[in-house]
Design goal:
heterodimer; A: alpha+beta; Alpha-Beta Plaits; Pseudouridine synthase; 2 domains; 11 strands; B: about 650 residues; alpha/beta; Rossmann fold; TIM Barrel; 4-stranded parallel β-sheet; globular
């Protein structure tokens, strides 16, 4: 239950360059520390171990870049969110950039549940670590999209499970035949159930060399929205920086 | 060739914890290199997580980057997965700051904080593409320098390191920079030329300029080969810690590391005189920071770093004259942003200390650590750790009564004159502490951590033959069987085999270097890590070199023996150390010289220094350091006997 003084906000940030090697928990620690350095009026939980009320969205695979990371945070007072990206830039490592922030409605659903689909761009290599053959990849993609089911075997807690991942795949497109490291696939996948690397290896003898999350969407009544456009108190002034 | 990142980046996708190789910490620098600039690469030869917090390395990093004529970057030991990929792809060791090749630096400067990292030093020199033996290096290779506590016996690495720096590094790095900078500007002619010049700097030891003569198994003499090379190398000591308020911008790592908090050194040196403690002996005299400087460093550091924890570090922080003021300020500064927690990593064993701890740890009262070090009052007099049982019980009682639920006790075993009754005293103290705890809470637990004692150079115990592996295993076994039934006491112990090898390196001579090299060549890196440590590797290497490791470790030395480090001095007179060794054997304690008359160990008089303390009076609480209550030792407080008789007493009364 939120106290009346709570001011929930949603931040959009990017993860580019060397910081792509930071794990999800480390990103969280660095953002929390940046809030402290910037002396933002964070709301804290009660109890013996007070911690700031921050909820991070979907975890990003270590080594992937992202244009579209989000977190929800509660402040104890309202202030001008337009200044936030510049204030946090000085407190965050290069490549971890907050680009925009909005005040949220009280009671907005948590990011983890609200986000319905995610778009990825991945560079695809063959089993030999060399750029994948674009024609073979195109055939594999067409076959996969035409198939009623796609089996994917994963190991969870030491036991292997085979799942049908076809329902998790919304879209797969080859957006570039060659990035230098391999052809680039764009995949739109449901927010849970499957990872892009699993899809790529399930459709053929392929692997992901590098990946980037480009969008996260919240779907309402069949329409996809940016997480900064739903459950917000005021319309957003979208990021200045790029 | 200057930026290796494009070659490193694809490797990082395939290794554990890749973020330990990207640098980018808050406080990290990207210095510009140039022909007129001397470039230092500061290396900690263990993983990033262990090495990053090292304060010595961070202090030098800032001092060197503040100078106009020098730059400094950092490197750590790549974990085995990355090392394999680097070797397979021909990628050399790199700095984490700008990912520059290690061989492009003028100086590779290693911090030696532990004996077992010696093989990693060789491995990093090799990964840099530099010959591991100093005799094989050419003028265009970087100079290999080492400092830190293990440099006080530099001999096992004498054939691998070009120059050792003994003692505090703050001033001497500047002098070394000037000598090496002049050599660089002069076109880096002969390597001997710069080494000869380095040897004239006080505190710098250039091992290749000394001849070692052996007399059978022992050493006959260590003699400088030239008249301008000192026969005795003195350590460096900075007189005023306030003049060196470093690190000013402590590095804030992006990933979790050990000691992941703001660290502020409140004083250097220690006069407690614990005879086993090398740090206490070699860092004399005591030099306190003023309370004002400490407060500034704490508040600036917290503001800059975003840390919510600060440690006030020293060898015994409760002895800091300004402790009460600093703590009071920290407590009143809490500004409602979740609070700052304070830790005192080396607590003195008394109730006063617990009072301080309780004042600053209002919330997170998880565990407190005390180090009585030995299980009986007799043995604590031998080692000069003058903790009365009453002090320990009062401290533990205070801790449990004020809400702590876990107490950790550090002990050494294998100490001089130790008998089984002393070893078993550890179990007795632990059980008593647990019994005290249970009077306050059912969840009370006591963790006992036991390490095998390794004698160190420049201490009164440098003549003592350490316990062998079997003997330490037996003693640990005694404690295990004694404590097995007590569920409130957990026993942990350091691997006796590792203690044995630490002893080989801590008191080894130049010949032990070939053993280190063999262990490294056979793949023995990361020997500090139990999963990679192998005693057999070391025993095999000793056998191959025709050396008896027991001769270096378990053998008692006599007064006349030339010790491998006799040509290095920490200012302590050898006859003082011998006298203190004799006092130890006679079970005589020695009081803390901050509060009692000088017994002339040699340090203050020879260096014309004094202890720098704000208060000449002993702090409140306990008996420690004053030696006033020595006669009271060993008494068991009656009320503990009444509630929970110890087994021995119960046996007698039955």
């Amino acid at each position: 239950m939120r106290s009346t003084a709570a001011h929930p906000a949603r931040l959009h940030y990017r993860k580019h360059g060397k910081v792509r090697f930071l794990g999800h928990r480390d990103v969280a620690r660095n953002l929390e520390r940046a809030f402290r350095i910037a002396r933002l009026p964070l709301a804290f939980s009660e109890g013996f171990h007070p911690h700031p009320k921050i909820s991070f969205g979907l975890a990003l695979t270590t080594g992937f870049e992202s244009d579209a990371e989000y977190l929800d945070v509660e402040f104890t007072e309202a202030f001008d969110l337009h200044a936030l990206p510049a204030v946090l830039r000085a407190a965050l490592p290069d490549g971890l950039d907050v680009v925009a922030a909005v005040w949220l409605d009280d009671g907005a659903p948590a990011l983890q549940e609200a986000v319905s689909s995610v778009v990825w761009e991945v560079e695809v290599v063959g089993a030999d670590d060399q750029p994948a053959d674009p024609c073979a990849l195109a055939r594999a993609v067409a076959d996969a999209l035409a198939a009623p089911t796609i089996e994917c075997t994963k190991v969870r807690k030491g036991r292997s499970h085979t799942d049908d991942i076809r329902p998790c795949i919304r879209r797969i497109v080859i957006v570039s035949p060659d990035s230098g490291r391999g052809p680039v696939l764009e995949l739109e996948l449901t927010s849970s159930g499957v990872k892009p690397a699993e899809v790529v290896s399930a459709i053929g003898p392929f692997a992901v060399a590098r990946g980037r999350r480009t969008h996260q969407y919240i779907e309402r009544d069949g329409v996809r929205h940016s997480p900064l456009h739903v459950d917000v108190r005021a319309p957003i002034a979208e990021a200045i920086a790029s | 060739m200057s930026n290796l990142w494009p070659r490193i980046e694809p490797l990082l996708a395939k290794v554990e914890k890749p973020a330990r190789y990207i640098g980018m910490e808050r406080g990290a620098q990207s210095p510009g290199h140039g022909p007129g600039t001397l470039a230092w690469l500061l290396l900690y030869p263990d993983t990033y997580e262990i090495g990053l917090p090292n304060q010595g390395l961070q202090i030098l990093y800032e001092i060197l980057n503040e100078r106009d004529d020098t730059v400094a970057e950092r490197s750590y030991a790549p974990w085995r997965d990355l090392e394999a990929l680097m070797r397979a792809s021909g990628t050399p060791l790199f700095s984490v700051d700008t990912h520059r090749s290690a061989a492009d630096f003028d100086i590779l400067a290693f911090n030696l904080s532990a004996e077992l990292i010696a093989t990693n030093l060789l491995n990093l020199v090799d990964l840099a593409g530099v010959p591991v033996r100093n005799e094989d290096r050419k003028p265009d290779h970087p100079l290999v320098i080492a400092g830190g506590h293990c440099a006080f016996n530099p001999e096992p690495l004498a054939d691998y390191v070009d120059a050792f720096v003994i003692g505090d590094g703050e001033e001497v790095v500047g002098e070394v920079s000037e000598v090496v900078g002049a050599w660089k500007r002069g076109g880096r002619a002969r390597r001997e030329a710069v080494l000869r010049d380095l040897a004239t700097i006080p505190g710098v030891y250039v091992p290749a300029l000394y001849d070692v003569e052996y007399d059978g198994a022992g050493i006959a003499a260590v003699t400088p080969r030239f008249a301008d090379v000192p026969a005795l190398v003195d350590k460096r000591t900075i007189a005023d810690l306030d003049a060196w308020p470093y690190p000013k911008q402590q590095l804030v790592p992006l990933i979790e590391v050990v000691h992941d908090r703001l660290n502020v050194e409140v004083f250097r040196g220690c006069t407690r005189g614990c005879r086993f403690c090398q740090a206490g002996m070699i860092t004399r005299p005591v030099r306190e920071r003023s309370a004002d400087t400490v407060r500034t460093m704490v508040s600036e550091g917290l503001r800059r770093s975003g840390y919510d924890e600060v440690a006030l570090t020293s060898l015994s922080t409760a002895d800091f004259s300004g402790i009460e003021r600093v703590v009071a300020d920290l407590v009143s500064d809490q500004d409602g942003t979740g609070g700052v927690s304070v830790s005192l990593p080396s607590l003195r064993v008394d109730a006063f200390t617990v009072g301080i701890a309780s004042e600053i740890q209002k919330v997170r009262r998880t565990g407190l650590t005390f180090a009585p070090e030995a299980g009986s009052w007799r043995l604590r007099q031998v080692i000069n750790k003058l903790v009365l049982e009453a002090d320990l019980y009062a401290a533990v009682d205070a801790a449990f009564s004020q809400g702590w639920r876990r107490v950790k006790l550090y002990f050494l075993t294998g100490l001089p004159t130790e008998m089984d009754a002393d070893t078993l005293g550890i179990a007795e103290l632990a059980q008593q502490c647990a019994a005290i705890g249970r009077q306050h809470t059912k969840q009370a637990s006591v963790t006992v951590s036991v390490g095998g004692f390794v004698p160190k150079a420049h201490t009164p115990f440098q003549w003592f033959g350490q316990n062998g592996v079997d003997e330490l295993v037996r003693k640990v076994g005694l404690l295990r069987s004694e404590l097995r039934a007590n569920r409130a006491v957990q026993l942990k112990w350091h691997d006796p085999a590792a203690s044995f090898v630490e002893g080989l390196l801590s008191r080894g001579d130049r010949r032990v270097g070939r053993v280190v090299e063999r262990v490294w060549r056979s793949g023995g890196t990361f020997q500090e890590w139990s999963e990679h440590f192998s005693l057999d590797r070391w025993l095999d290497a000793c056998a191959a070199e025709g050396l008896d490791p027991e001769w270096f470790t378990t053998r008692h030395r006599d007064e006349r023996e030339v010790l491998p480090w006799d040509h290095i001095t920490a200012g302590l007179h050898k006859d003082f150390l011998w006298q203190d060794w004799q006092s130890a054997l006679a079970e005589h304690g020695l009081p803390d010289c901050r509060w009692t008359p000088c017994y002339d160990c040699g340090v203050c008089t020879d260096y014309a220094l004094e202890h720098v303390v704000a208060s000449p009076v002993a702090p409140a609480g306990g008996s420690q350091g004053t030696g006033q209550d020595l006669s009271r030792g060993g008494e068991m407080p009656i009320r503990f006997l009444a509630t929970k008789p110890i087994s021995a007493t119960a046996g007698v009364s039955a």
